[in-house]
């Protein structure tokens, strides 16, 4: 089945700042193929055809008539990037396939998703982001408000907020969204995460001095391995994907898997495994689990950090393309080779810039710390000393 693709973007419009859409187009053209093939040393096919339609108010849509090449027939291209980028993917002619909106936060390099059942307009939000400025310690809600505006614009009722894991590189907007959505719809969407989150909460609450009252039972639903639930008439399956963190989940919806921080774009490979509880062997097995799915299944990543030679972030690649092109997990790479590579690479990585702030907020499910007697909400940041303490 060919996907129907539409794009509508411009954060200022989403937030009501501007009165017009920025003109943009999204097309399955040779640009995307070029980025993928440059990373893998594969030549491009020039035998591609595209049919286009431009009907929607202020938006462009592209209906792909013929694959671009045998190696990138599922891939998007030519993404115009703003602070917040939004795209719509729908295979709604199948009752079991969702409508997917991807929203890219450029500051943290995070992909956020709204996944909807087109037959009921029931939807979930996956991995929403709070904006945080480490220079001023200011938390703002621009990205989260864009998600709310997108849901309202499309008439969606948000049924659940799904986290793939306790993120260490951005603050979760889950609790903020839950509060706002409770005020605007007749349903308080539960915040859901994997059942192993409790061991992560215990570890980092001790490290940062977070009181039990601020992290115990803050998630509304803990999902078990392979547990299923419905979003409207669509079934979602939670898949345990450990490696980056022990609590990590993916969510399978129709022929789509939202894999969080496990697989990245083919020219990046995979996520780091050096956080407490992370394990390169586990990540290799999680990657192989994902790449054992049928080749046409789309794997939607949690982050993208385009390297030299690729200027735009890409939200998904097919299983087929990952098998052939993923620099860390393509066919032929053994577990021992992967573990050695991943451990060597992780040893040279710096800590995420928002590591301490993110973990303290995210083990609270995105809730703010309780105020002190003076009315301040505080996070702990460890000092780095060059010698003995005095």
Automatic annotation (TrEMBL):
<protein>
    <recommendedName>
        <fullName>Metallo-beta-lactamase domain-containing protein</fullName>
    </recommendedName>
</protein>
<dbReference type="GO" id="GO:0070813">
    <property type="term" value="P:hydrogen sulfide metabolic process"/>
</dbReference>
<dbReference type="InterPro" id="IPR051682">
    <property type="entry name" value="Mito_Persulfide_Diox"/>
</dbReference>
<dbReference type="GO" id="GO:0050313">
    <property type="term" value="F:sulfur dioxygenase activity"/>
</dbReference>
<dbReference type="GO" id="GO:0006749">
    <property type="term" value="P:glutathione metabolic process"/>
</dbReference>
<dbReference type="Pfam" id="PF00753">
    <property type="entry name" value="Lactamase_B"/>
</dbReference>
<keyword id="KW-0479">Metal-binding</keyword>
<dbReference type="InterPro" id="IPR044528">
    <property type="entry name" value="POD-like_MBL-fold"/>
</dbReference>
<dbReference type="InterPro" id="IPR036866">
    <property type="entry name" value="RibonucZ/Hydroxyglut_hydro"/>
</dbReference>
<feature type="domain" description="Metallo-beta-lactamase">
    <location>
        <begin position="109"/>
        <end position="303"/>
    </location>
</feature>
<dbReference type="InterPro" id="IPR001279">
    <property type="entry name" value="Metallo-B-lactamas"/>
</dbReference>
<dbReference type="GO" id="GO:0046872">
    <property type="term" value="F:metal ion binding"/>
</dbReference>
């Amino acid at each position: 089945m060919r996907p129907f693709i539409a794009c509508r973007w411009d954060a200022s419009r989403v937030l009501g700042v501007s009165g017009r859409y920025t003109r943009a187009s999204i097309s399955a053209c040779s640009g995307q193929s070029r980025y993928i093939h440059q990373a893998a040393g594969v030549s491009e096919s020039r035998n591609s055809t595209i049919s286009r339609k431009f009907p929607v108010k202020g938006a462009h849509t592209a209906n792909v008539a013929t694959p671009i090449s045998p190696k990138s027939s599922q891939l998007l291209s030519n993404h115009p990037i703003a602070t917040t980028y939004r795209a719509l993917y729908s295979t709604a002619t199948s009752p079991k396939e969702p409508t997917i909106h991807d929203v890219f936060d450029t500051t943290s390099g995070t992909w956020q998703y709204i996944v909807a059942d087109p037959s009921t307009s029931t939807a979930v939000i996956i991995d929403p982001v709070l904006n945080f400025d480490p220079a001023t310690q200011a938390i703002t809600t621009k990205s989260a408000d864009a998600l709310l505006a997108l849901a309202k614009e499309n008439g969606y009722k948000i049924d659940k907020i799904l986290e793939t894991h306790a993120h260490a590189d951005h603050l979760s907007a889950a609790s903020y969204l839950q509060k706002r959505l409770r005020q605007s719809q007749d349903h308080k969407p539960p915040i859901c995460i994997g059942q192993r989150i409790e061991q992560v909460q215990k570890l980092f609450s001790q490290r940062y001095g977070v009181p039990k009252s601020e992290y115990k039972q803050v998630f509304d639903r803990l999902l078990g391995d392979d547990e299923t639930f419905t979003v409207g008439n669509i079934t979602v399956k939670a898949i345990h994907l450990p490696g980056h963190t022990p609590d990590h989940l993916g969510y399978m919806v129709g022929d789509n898997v939202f894999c969080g921080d496990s697989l990245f774009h083919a020219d990046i490979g995979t996520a780091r495994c050096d956080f407490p509880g992370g394990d390169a062997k586990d990540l290799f097995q999680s990657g192989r689990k994902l790449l054992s799915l049928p080749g046409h299944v789309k794997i939607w990543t949690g982050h993208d950090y385009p390297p030299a030679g690729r200027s735009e972030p890409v939200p998904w690649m097919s299983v087929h393309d990952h098998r052939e092109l993923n620099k860390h997990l393509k066919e032929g790479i053994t577990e021992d080779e992967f573990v050695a590579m991943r451990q060597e690479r992780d040893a040279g990585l710096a800590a995420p810039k928002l590591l301490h702030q993110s973990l303290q907020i995210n083990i609270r499910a995105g809730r703010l710390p309780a105020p002190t007697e003076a009315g301040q909400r505080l996070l702990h940041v460890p000092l780095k000393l060059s010698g003995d303490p005095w």
